[in-house]
Design brief:
By secondary structure, this protein is mainly beta. The protein has one domain (about 1-185): Porin, CATH 2.40.160. Helix content is about 10%, strand content about 55%. It is built from two helices and nine strands. It has helices spanning about 1-20, 90-95; strands at about 25-35, 35-45, 50-65, 70-85, 105-115, 120, 130-145, 150-160, 170-185. The protein has an eight-stranded antiparallel barrel.
């Protein structure tokens, strides 16, 4: 009886010491790149499964075709604020999967602003029209080792274009999509 009791206590202590705190990190910083851009971000804890992601970086664009002499490329600044709900952290922790660096599935409300501050381009006299977009997004983030990660997300939302600033008669609005695949480094 005593051996059985001691075995149960030992097994119980083992499970307790291996348990992870199923919560987003207090604060994490990183840099990510994808097919069309590069971004620096911070995620700060708002609640045990909710983080506020703030991001600044460059979104890119490519254009070309029969009407252009050459293929054009531009990079323009973007500022993003994105509350994220990591909804499966507890489930991942129970299955002994890593949740460090906010590794998990998330639902977010990605709000991005493209200001008309400057443009980096291989073509002269290129400008962008400022816009703001709000896109509900579903995504995943997974870690590769201790510092590297990858992230994918998809969503459809709304974009408002400040066309009057560029000389048009009216501002415009339209549907917008967010489809991203990024690889990054966490500091």
């Amino acid at each position: 009886m005593r051996k059985t009791f001691m075995t149960l206590i030992f097994c119980g202590l083992t499970f307790i010491t291996n348990a992870q705190d199923a919560s987003v990190e207090k604060s994490t910083y990183g840099i990510q790149t994808g097919f069309l851009g590069i971004w620096v971000h911070n995620e700060s804890e708002l609640a045990s499964s909710i983080a506020l992601r703030t991001e600044i970086g460059f979104d890119s664009g490519i254009w070309g075709g029969d009407f252009y002499d050459k293929t054009g490329f531009l990079m323009t600044p973007v500022i993003t604020v994105e509350p994220r709900w990591y909804y499966n952290l507890k489930k991942r922790a129970i299955k002994s999967r890593k949740i460090e660096g906010n590794s998990g599935n998330f639902v977010s409300l990605k709000t991005s602003y493209h200001p008309d501050w400057f443009v980096i381009s291989n073509t002269a006299n290129v400008s962008v029209i400022s816009d703001i977009s709000i896109i509900p997004t579903w995504g995943i983030r997974r870690n590769i080792g201790r510092h590297f990660n990858y992230e994918a997300g998809i969503g459809i939302g709304y974009r408002y274009i400040f066309a009057k600033q560029a000389g048009f008669l009216e501002n415009e609005s339209e549907a917008a999509a967010n489809l991203h695949l990024r690889i990054g480094y966490r500091f």
